[in-house]
Design goal:
The structure is a homodimer. Helix content of chain A is about 45%, strand content about 15%. Chain A is α/β, with parallel strands linked by helices and about 350 residues long. The termini of chain A are far apart. At the A-B interface, α4, α5, β2 and α11 of A face α4, α5, β2 and α11 of B. Chain A binds a DNA duplex (16 and 16 nucleotides) through α2 and α4.
Chain lengths: ~350, ~350
DNA sequence: CTGAAAGCGCTTACAG
DNA sequence: CTGAAAGCGCTTACAG
């Protein structure tokens, strides 16, 4: 491996001059040309460790995702990778594997590696997070959740909930069940539901609420329990995975979707188009939010400034899993055929 | 940030001693105790750049995946991450985004960053790959494809094909269509098909072969074309995504699965359990191969030695998408109801 | 525009 | 077991 000293010698200049050339400092045209030639001939690439050791900064951005195998995380990473690359930064990924402790640990590791900044996709923000952010003292961008003290980039969760509420109402449903998740997750557990509730509040209808976990299996179990009891004509899951669990449970109970029961979700995962019937959902733009996150952290790193809150738009994707009811009058009696469970 | 000099001063010893303590050299019990206390009190962590600059090695393993949003890649990364962590290494991820050029570029970048080793999941291995490997001169492990000159870790593709061939035969199918992919992909395009062919070769049956791409959309288009023409009673897609495309096309044509047509795939993606009917497939253990890859590269890095070829077992997952035919006699006439296309 | 020198925070023979 | 010294490959004031 060639070093800067080798190049300097070959060019007959000092290391300083080579370094200056490399970093865009003022160098005469003649030496610039010479250096350009020699460097490409020798395929010289500066040692990043030495650079970072001296300059005390790197071109790496640490990205902490809750898990590696979720549609949302994958798409967001793709977006981040893309925009970071275009700005000359490298994306480092750490998976927290759904554990808060590992999220904290990942922040420490990244800080120690002197990344230029951190993008974090948390499910919750605890005091421990806050204090870790504080003493990491690094540019930080939150994605998917917001916090008043840190730049945040979120999906329009409230809006998404509202859209879905209005949509099912418009389809004539008057007895609605929302299967949500813990309110400790502000974005999904609270905002999404709040938007939904407010849409329903403007109409005469009955709304029930239940809670389950993020895991499809759990949602299915909950649904197996709930479905035989409820008289709701539509069930809205707080995420597509929950909706998918609902569909599986409904299949198992011999319910026809959307004939006997309508189902909808949130997220726009690719799987929602594969299932039968295709799932009506609110589509989130994970790729977009990823790109914005990349831009954002670069700006935070280079200019130490970015909006405290940025949002990424959502849109409803109407497919086949929600039925149009003719009878739009509120009624407890179901009119869609009986529930012939297995 | 504290440096090793600070710690040395506080302990009243030299930097050398602190460094020796840190790296497991011989240090007296007394100073060992003292150092231990001071370091944890001061929360001292060595600067990785300085370490790497001097020691000329790092504890990072570069992992190059074809894409970030595939089930196979995600699971494999999870496995790699896990075993690397347990050995004190860090996983660095680069996505080639399906482009060979970016795969090559990623190898260069990792080499420049002085990673300890590289795990590569290629779709093909070109001469350009080989020459890049050669001058990167780094421990390298191939995952999912094999090459005679480099340690490789593969799924039992041939075996998988054989299993599936035998299974559909056992189910009484005698007219079979295999929807494969380009043979430039040795693992998927060649081996999987070869195993399948050899299983069929042992019985009297008719086998047709067609080709499509890896993308579900393409598979669906191909299927829309193929389905109305073929008289096969079962179609086997070379990947689950292809099988999923087949299912979608069959649905669109009004074919009932598995009543009118049986469908099977390879991979064991999580989505195969969600679709209706659940897909019969050969399940690959991506998590396992990921863990093995982690172990393997660590061994290559530390002992410069590992088997040239290691395999990860597969198993068939029988679900609902393949029908049992009563009539096991070869016959061109289908007996499963007519094809009432849309 | 250019160069000499100091220094970033470690590790590693070498001598004791 | 311990320390002084050199050096890894860069960057950055500083002086010219």
């Amino acid at each position: 491996m060639k070093t800067i000293a080798d190049i300097a010698k070959m060019a007959g200049v000092s290391k300083s001059t080579v370094s200056r050339y490399l970093n865009g400092g003022s160098v005469s045209d003649t030496t610039k040309k010479k250096l350009e030639r020699i460097i490409s001939e020798q395929k010289y690439v500066p040692n990043t460790f030495a650079q970072s050791l001296k300059a005390k900064k790197t071109a790496m951005i640490g990205t902490i995702v809750p898990r590696l195998d979720s549609f949302a995380a994958s798409q967001t990473m793709i977006g981040i990778d893309e925009s970071l690359r275009s700005h000359g930064y490298q994306m480092l990924i750490a998976s927290a594997n759904q554990e808060i402790a590992r999220e904290i640990e990942a922040i420490h590791n990244f800080a120690r590696q002197k990344v230029a900044g951190i993008i974090l996709m948390p499910a919750q923000i605890t005091k421990e997070h806050i204090s870790t952010f504080r003493d990491a003292d690094l540019p930080l961008l939150l994605v998917g959740q917001q916090h008043p003290s840190f730049p945040s980039l979120i999906h329009e969760d409230y809006e998404a909930g509202r859209m879905m509420g209005e949509y099912v109402l418009n389809q004539g449903h008057r007895h609605i069940l929302f299967l949500g998740v813990t309110e400790r997750d502000i974005a999904v557990g609270m905002e999404r539901k709040r938007g939904f509730q407010e849409a329903l509040a403007r109409h005469e209808c009955r709304a029930d609420y239940a809670e389950t976990s993020f895991r499809m299996q759990d949602a299915m179990k909950t649904a197996l329990h709930l479905l035989p009891q409820t008289e709701a004509t539509v069930i809205v899951g707080a995420t597509d995975n929950i909706a998918l669990g609902l569909i599986k449970a409904a299949h198992q109970l011999g319910l026809r979707i959307p004939l006997d029961l309508s189902i909808a979700g949130f997220g726009g995962y690719d799987t929602t188009e594969i299932v039968t019937p295709a799932l009506t959902t609110v589509t989130y733009n994970y790729l977009d939010i990823g790109k914005k996150a990349g831009e954002g952290i670069v700006q935070l790193v280079e200019e130490a400034d970015w909006d405290l809150l940025t949002t990424s738009p959502v849109e409803i994707s109407v497919r086949e899993s929600v039925d149009k009811k003719k009878d739009t009058v509120y009624s407890i009696t179901k009119e869609t055929g009986s529930n012939e469970g297995t």
